[in-house]
Design goal:
single chain; mainly alpha; globular
Length: about 400
């Protein structure tokens, strides 16, 4: 995303849910605290749309005016996207570690597409049944590819814009995976990305701004640094990455208050961004490890479909429920139905769709692996009996030793 091309921020919880950490003992098992954070971020976005939005929305008047004092608080709910991107930097590096680019790509496709397609088709259904929203057939087809933002086409749902930002991050991580994800490689990658993004913005270089997303990259880079702290332990260098990412995130948060969210206060945004980084630091340092309730896993599972569908669900619902019901009852109804629809998408579409896609996409990698194995065998076929060599032990050592590698 460039300085000159900022769509209206609506937030996004996409990105894989908490995964298993392969290294340290406290990383064994699901990070349910991240499930909770993702759900709270999604809820902030929902409340932003339902009570704090100042533009055209599901209500007959701007929701910020309709809900008064509450709207003055929830108008900052758009910052849920900042938390989502920080979590994404952490979790996507965790997901990509030890995987090939193909395996990483499959994990992203499987994670994103089933629920996303459901969200696009829901937009079509809302438009066909009520003539509400942007789900016109001419937009639905390109939206199914998830490439519509890059093609300059309108999103069926405005919240889809963050998926395109995530797509940029996935491409960069896939390149890193192709090179080989190591501790040292991540440090070089993060420094290069951060500095190149600043240089691109300084030079007003459109192509690099689009590729490197300098206005959002601090969250992804900060999340990656936090994962390295979680996996290998804290160092002054890694805390330096987090600190610089935090400062840049505050800079761009302040920029958005003047260019995108004119009604926001810079001080409030700075405090919120600091809190976002602070709560993630609590996660990686184990301060929130006591959050182990199984119910949090369900909340984490609802996050992505809730984000994808809540705006569209509310369009016809609030059109007929309000003002027949008072605004508070209508708000509770819209939120409850959004959660029910999200759960239905998760159980009936996302879970079976992921299982079906995962198996078939993994099959598509088999010919690639067979060709790679055949080529490796040809290269390794000796012309003469080779001398015996001891097997190389797996890498071990301290963080400084890992850096040198």
């Amino acid at each position: 995303m460039t300085r000159h091309d900022h769509p209206r921020d609506h937030g996004s919880p996409h990105g894989q849910g908490p995964a298993r950490e392969p290294g340290r003992s406290r990383g064994q098992g699901r990070l349910r605290e991240l499930d909770l954070l993702r759900f709270l971020a999604a809820l902030a976005v929902v409340l932003f749309h339902f009570t704090g939005f100042d533009g055209a929305g599901p209500w007959p008047e701007p929701s910020r005016e309709l809900f008064g004092t509450l709207g003055q608080i929830t108008k900052y709910g758009y910052l849920g996207v900042d938390l989502f991107f920080l979590i994404s930097g952490f979790v996507i590096l965790m997901s990509a570690w030890g995987r090939s680019p193909g395996e990483f790509g499959i994990s992203r496709v499987v994670r994103l597409l089933p629920a996303y397609w459901a969200g696009v088709l829901l937009g079509l259904a809302i438009w066909a049944g009520f003539r509400l929203g942007n789900g016109v057939p001419g937009l639905v087809v390109p939206n199914l590819t998830m490439l519509q933002s890059g093609l300059g086409l309108k999103n069926v749902d405005a919240v889809f814009w963050t998926l395109w930002i995530e797509m940029h991050f996935y491409v960069l991580i896939a390149v890193l995976a192709a090179i080989g994800i190591t501790y040292r490689g991540c440090l070089v990658f993060m420094a290069g990305w951060l500095l190149a993004g600043i240089f691109a913005d300084e030079a007003d270089q459109k192509l690099l701004q689009v590729m490197l997303m300098p206005t959002w990259s601090p969250y992804f880079i900060g999340g990656m640094a936090l994962y390295l702290i979680y996996r290998f332990g804290p160092t002054l260098l890694l805390w330096g990455y987090v600190a610089v990412s935090w400062l840049l995130a505050m800079h761009w948060g302040a920029w958005r208050t003047g260019h995108v969210f004119q009604g926001s206060d810079e001080t409030v945004v700075a405090v919120a961004v600091t809190a976002i980084f602070g709560v993630m630091i609590l996660v990686v340092t184990g301060r929130l490890s006591w959050l182990r309730w199984r119910a949090l896993t369900v909340l984490g599972a609802l996050t992505y479909p809730l984000y994808l569908t809540h705006s569209q669900v509310a369009l016809p619902l609030l059109k007929y429920a309000y003002p027949a019901m008072n605004r508070w009852a209508a708000l509770v109804l819209a939120t409850a139905v959004s959660l029910l629809v999200a759960y239905a998408v998760y159980r009936l579409i996302e879970r079976p769709g992921q299982s079906w896609m995962r198996a078939r996409l993994k099959e598509s990698l088999i010919p690639i692996r067979e060709n790679q194995d055949a080529g490796r065998k040809r290269r390794e076929t000796p012309t003469a009996a080779p001398s015996a060599r001891p097997e190389t032990p797996p890498p071990t050592g301290t963080v400084p030793e890992l850096i040198r590698r």
